[in-house]
C-alpha cells in the first residue's frame, strides 16, 4: 500500500500556553471592582464637554478590560482537548481538564479524545475467488494526535468513515469466503482472528495521516450476496460432504492396514492375495458405509 504521508507536511501535536481559569476568575473579579471604583470617582474640574469625554473613556476602558478577561474562559471535560490557533497558526493543544483561560483573540477548537464506536454499513464486494459477498465491521477508534486531526485532513470523522469502508473492501478481497479443500487456508468465515487483525492493521495504516489510532476492528456481518446464496449453499454442502468422505476413507485405509498387520504379526490367519483383497473390500464397505452393516456368517470354509 502506498504511504499517504509521503509528499505532504505532517502536523505534530504540542502543548499550548494557557492559564488556570479559577485564578483568572479572581482577576476578572478584581477588574470588575477596580472598574466600578474608577467609574464612581468624581470627574476632574473642567468644561462639561471634557467631562463627558472622560466619562466615555473610562466606560470604554472598563468594558474593554472586562470583556478581554471574560471572553477568554473555556472548559475542557475529561478526555477532551482544545486546539489553540493564533491568527491561523497552530499554537498548541490543551489537554488539562477543567476551567482554562487564554487570550480571547486565540481561537479554540475542541476535539474529543474519547473512544468512538462505528458500525459500518453492509457493503457488497468480491472475495478472492470473485464471489459476491456482503460484509460489515465494527471499529473502535480515537484521536491520538489532535494537530493531524485538525489540520492534515478536512473532516477527520468523515475521513474515518470513508477509510473504514475502503479498508473493509481491501481486506475482504484478500481471502475467499470459505475453502473446504484446505483446512489451514485463511478464509473470511473460518479465520476471524486473522482477518480482524489484518483489518485493524489496514485501518491504522490508512488513518495515521489523520492522527487516529484504531483500538479494535472486527467483522460483524458476513454472507453471500442474495443472488448466489442458494447456489453457494449447495456448493458448501457438496464441499463438506466431499471433505468428510475424504477423511473417512483416509481413516478407514489406516484402520485396514493396522488390522491386516496385526493379524499377520500375531499369526492369527494367513491370507493369500485374493482373500486379502476380499477382506480389505469388506472392511472398507463396513467402515465407509453410510448405513449399519449386516454381517453374514460363513458356515463353510474361507474359500466357500
CATH 2nd-level architecture of the largest domain? 2-Layer Sandwich
Distance between the termini: 73 Å
State the helicity in percent bands. 40-55%
What oligomeric arrangement do these chains adopt? single chain
**SSE string, helices as H and strands as E:** EHHEEEEEEEEHHHEHH
Tally of distinct domains:
3
Largest sheet: 4 strands, antiparallel
Mean pLDDT: 81
Q: Specify the overall morphology.
A: rod-shaped
Question: Any idea of the CATH class of the largest domain?
Answer: Alpha Beta
Q: So how many helices? A: 7
DSSP strand content: 15-25%
CATH topology of the largest domain: Tetrahydropterin Synthase, Chain A
The chain-level structural class is alpha+beta
CATH superfamily of the largest domain: Band 7 domain
Instruction: Evaluate the radius of gyration.
Output: 39 Å
Membrane topology: Single-pass membrane protein
Protein name: Putative integral membrane protein
InterPro entries: Band_7, Band_7/SPFH_dom_sf
Transmembrane segments: 20-41, 53-76
Write a brief structural summary.
Helix content is 46%, strand content 21%. The protein is of the alpha+beta class and 304 residues long.
Amino acid at each position: 500500500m502506498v504511504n499517504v504521508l509521503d509528499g505532504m507536511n505532517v502536523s505534530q501535536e504540542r502543548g499550548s500556553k494557557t492559564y488556570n481559569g479559577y485564578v483568572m476568575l479572581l482577576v476578572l473579579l478584581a477588574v470588575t471592582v477596580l472598574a466600578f471604583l474608577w467609574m464612581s470617582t468624581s470627574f476632574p474640574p473642567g468644561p462639561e464637554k471634557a467631562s463627558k469625554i472622560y466619562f466615555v473613556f473610562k466606560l470604554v476602558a472598563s468594558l474593554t478590560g472586562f470583556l478581554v478577561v471574560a471572553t477568554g474562559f473555556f472548559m475542557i471535560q475529561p478526555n477532551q482537548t482544545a486546539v489553540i490557533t493564533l491568527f491561523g497558526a497552530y499554537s498548541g493543544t490543551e489537554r488539562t481538564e477543567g476551567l482554562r483561560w487564554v487570550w480571547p483573540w486565540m481561537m479554540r477548537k475542541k476535539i474529543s479524545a474519547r473512544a468512538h464506536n462505528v458500525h459500518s454499513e453492509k457493503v457488497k464486494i468480491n472475495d478472492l475467488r470473485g464471489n459476491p459477498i456482503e460484509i460489515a465491521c465494527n471499529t473502535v477508534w480515537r484521536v491520538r494526535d489532535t494537530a493531524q486531526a485538525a489540520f492534515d485532513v478536512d473532516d477527520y470523522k468523515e475521513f474515518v468513515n470513508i477509510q473504514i469502508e475502503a479498508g473493509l473492501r481491501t481486506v475482504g478481497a484478500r481471502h475467499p469466503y470459505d475453502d473446504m479443500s484446505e483446512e489451514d487456508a485463511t478464509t473470511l468465515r473460518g479465520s476471524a482472528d486473522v482477518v480482524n487483525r489484518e483489518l485493524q492493521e489496514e485501518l491504522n495504516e490508512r488513518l495515521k495521516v489523520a492522527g487516529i489510532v484504531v483500538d479494535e476492528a472486527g467483522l460483524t456481518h458476513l454472507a453471500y450476496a442474495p443472488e448466489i446464496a442458494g447456489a453457494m449453499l449447495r456448493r458448501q454442502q457438496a464441499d463438506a460432504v466431499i471433505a468428510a468422505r475424504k477423511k473417512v476413507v483416509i481413516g478407514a485405509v489406516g484402520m485396514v492396514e493396522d488390522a491386516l498387520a496385526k493379524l499377520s504379526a500375531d499369526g492369527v490367519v494367513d491370507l493369500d492375495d485374493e482373500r486379502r483383497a476380499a477382506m480389505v473390500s469388506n472392511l472398507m464397505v463396513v467402515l465407509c458405509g453410510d448405513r449399519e452393516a449386516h454381517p453374514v456368517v460363513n458356515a463353510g470354509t474361507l474359500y466357500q
